[in-house]
Amino acid sequence: VLAFLTAILEAHGDQVQRFSSQHLVSFHERINLPFEKDNQVKTAPITEEQLVDVLQRTKDVNGEDPITFFEITTAAAFLAFSETKADWCLLETGLGGRLDSTNVIASPAATILSPISIDHTKFLGETIREIAREKIGILKANSPVFVGIQEPEPLELIEQRAAEISAPSYIRGQDYDVYAQRGRLVYSSPDALFDLPLPRNMLGRHQIENAGLALCVAQHLLKERLNPDALATAMKTAFWPARMQRLQAEDYSPHLRQEDELWLDGGHNPAAALVLADILGDLEERVSRPLHIIIGMMEGKDVRGFLKEFLGLASQVIAVPIPGEDNAMNPDRLADLACEMGFESESAATLDDALQISAEGRHEGVRVLICGSLYLAGYVLSLQETS
User: Fold this and answer.
1) Which end of the chain is less congested by CB atoms within 10 angstroms, N or C?
2) pTM
3) Using CA atoms, how far apart are residues 122 and 216, in angstroms rounded to an integer?
């Protein structure tokens, strides 16, 4: 949603600051500021010099008081934003919402709730209802809330809370609709109808939902400035790394060939797996190829819930370690779990070994998906920078 909203606002000539709660390769990715490039202002990761400066000043002010990593880095991001000209500041919450460090804006121009699913149960609660209660903590009195497609229970809580605090709500299926039709993205609301290109760099039906949510927010923020040509440009340019990102197979392994497909996604929970399986099913219908899943996961994740979505779709599962992560699941145990579920599976000592295993003993092209962890995705992308 942040990727689409950034692209939409920039396509209208606006300058955007953006804070995201995780990074893939470098911490700098979390704090994005407007920079001029090729006579255009685009959001880009904070420079090393700027980052060191705001972190040091934030640390000096905090002194010896207790503070978490996320709290001090959020404060540093706010400091950087306060000293940088921009039209919009986009903030992604951390784990939850209610007690999140980002949740200090008293009257935001908009609050956004993408689909709520089971994740981070150790911190947010075991049920979808408990998790939703944490998420809706970002709603603010009289500030509009924009709601993506939701299960009935979270939606009920969202509507109740919005009514309690007089927050105008714009809800998917009630106040706007979005769908794919004849190779196009169609967005409709009582005040607008847009026929746009499908997202070029963001595959999957879920990205149509994300685009629709961003379009609804933009319709409210930009009002009469909303331009169909700019929206079309945004659908073509919006990008977020490690979201079904196509990689050049031969760049990552000498064992893979040009006709092989190599994909990367940081998805790590059952909801993400469902989305991935849907995309891979579509790809299989277009061009049939054996699907190999290379997976690394952190301890505490729902391995069975994640992998079950690939039953009948993946012909092989190869478990790998996640370099530099002590809390990563042992690949042998991960492979054993996959085997118990009915997959042909094995473990590999390294990603390169896994890619070699995937390439062995075949003549036709193969489709490889690396998934299961944002940490693993970050490691894979870091290989691009060192190659």
Assistant:
1) C
2) 0.90
3) 32
